[in-house]
Amino acid sequence: MIVIGQVGIGYWGPNLLRNLNANTSCKVKLVAESSKERRDYVKSIYPSIKVTNHFDDLLNDDEINSIVISTPVNTHFDFTMKALHSGKNVLVEKPMATDSNQINKIHELAVKKKLVAMVGHTFLFNEAVRYVKKIIDSGTLGKIRYIYSQRLNLGRIRSDVDALWNLAPHDISIVQYWLDEPDPIKISRNGIDYVQKGINDVVFMNIQYPKNIMVNIHVSWLDPHKVRKMTIVGSKKMIVYDDIAENKITIYDKGIDPIAVLGKDMDFDNPNSIAFNHRSGDVYQPKIQWIEPLKAEIDHFINCIVKNTKCLTDPLHARKVIKILEAQK
Question: Regarding beta strands 89-93 and 117-120, do their DSSP bridges make them parallel or antiparallel, or are they unpaired?
Answer without folding.
Answer: parallel
